Please model this.
Amino acid sequence: MDISADLTRIALAEDGELKELYYESKRDESLVGNIYAGRVANVMPNLQAAFVDIGVGKNGYYYYGNARAVSDGGRNLAKPKVGDTLILQVEKDAVSSKGAVLSANFSFPGKFLVLLPEDAGEIGVSRKITDSAERNRIREIVAELLPEGYGAIVRTNGAGKTREEFEKEIMHLAAKAEKLKTGSFLKPPVLLLQENHPVRRAARDFYAPDVDEYVVNDKEAYEELLETGDFNGENQPQLKLHTEKLPLFAAYYLESQSEKALDEHVWLKSGGFLVIEETEACVVIDVNTGKAAGKGDLQKTILKTNLEAAEEAAKQMRLRNLSGIIIIDFIDMADENAQKEVTRHLEAAVKKDRIKTVVVGMTELGLMQVTRKKTRPSLKRQMTTKCRACEGTGRLPSLEWTVTKMRREAESILANTIYDKLIVKADPRLLSAFAGQNDGYLLALEKDFGGTVLLENAELGFGQYLIEKEKQK
Model:
C-alpha cells in the first residue's frame, strides 16, 4: 500500500507479478459500503426509483421496486416521497454521468463473513468451501453467535476459523449496525458510516491464508492496522512498514508493471496480441495472431493463440478491474471442440478472480460473452481523464473538416450580426489552412463581407479555435 498526500495505490502481487492494482485519489475515494442518511430529491413511480441527495454532488439512484414495506424512521422504504429521509448504503460508485447506486439492504463485510441486518436467520457459506463437514461446522457456530434479526454470508476466508474468531468479528460488525439506529434523527444529507477507507478495505478484502505479508509506507496506517490484532501472530500475515528511501513500488519491482497496465496492446508469448478497448456500453477485447501468423499448422496456431488469449484476458480483467459486459473476439475457430476447449480454459482462468465473473458463452457471431460484477471504476477511469481536445474519443476532427467549420462560422458572423471585425485564434497550422493559399480565402472573405479578419497564434489543442467578435469604430 503506497500512500501519499493525494493518492493511495494498492497492489496485489504474486511471485513478483502484479495481479491487481487500485488507484484512489482523495478527491475520488470510493463510496461503496458507505451508509448515508439521504434526502429524497425526486421520485419516478413508473420506474419504481428515486434520486436521493447523499451530499456527494450527484444524487444517488435508489430502486425501491424490491424493497420491503418496512418503516425507516417513519418513512416507507417501498414508497418514498420527496423530502423523506432514507438511510441507504452505496452499492456501486458513480460512473461518468450516473450517480452512485444505493440500496436499503445493508451489508457489513468483515474478513471472514458479511453481516446482513435485513436477512434474519439466513446463513450462506461460500461455494469455494467445498468440504461438507466444514460447511456444517461453520453454519452451527455462526447460527449460535448471530444476534436476533441478523443473517450472514461466510466468506472463503472463514474456512478453518475458530468460534472465538467468528465471535470477535460478529460482535464488531453488529456494533457498527447498531450505530445506524440514530441516523433517521439527523438532518440529511449526512454520512453515517465510512466503510470504504482504502487502507482498511485493502486489509479486509485481501486478508487470506495465502497472503504472506502486507507492506505499507505510511506510519499512521501501519499503526492503525497493527491495532486490529490481525497481523504478526501465529498463522497471520506479516505487517511491515516500508522505511527505505527507494519508493515502495520500485522496491518491489511493481512500478514498471503498473505503468504498462493501461497499454492498449498486450502481447502474448506466441506472438499474438490483445487489443483492449473500453466503451460506455461494454469492454471489447480483440485477439490477433500478430507475429504468430504463418507459423506451422494454421488451426493449431489459432488454438494456441486463443488459449493464451483466454488466460491473458482473465488476467487483464482482474488487473484493470474491467467490469460489466465484456466481449472477447477470439480468432475464428472452425472446430467446435476447439471452441469448447477455449471456453473451458477461460472459465478456469476467471476462477482466480475475487470479483464474481461469469463466462456466458459464444454468440452466434463467434464472440465470447463475459460478465464481471461492477463494484468501482476501472483502472483506466481511475488513472486517466478525458482529453479536452477530443472529449475522450481518442480522435480529433480532420484539418479539412475543422477549416470548413471555421469558415462557415466566420461568414455567418459577418453576414448576420453587427460585428465587422473578427480575431481568429488557433494553432499556426490551422490558421494557415483557414487563410488559404497565399491568404486567398482571407482576402476574399474581407472583400465579400466588408469586414476585417485578423489571425492570432494561440496555444490551443489542434482542432480547437476561438473567434472573437468586435464592432469597428
Notes: The two ends are 65 Å apart (CA to CA).
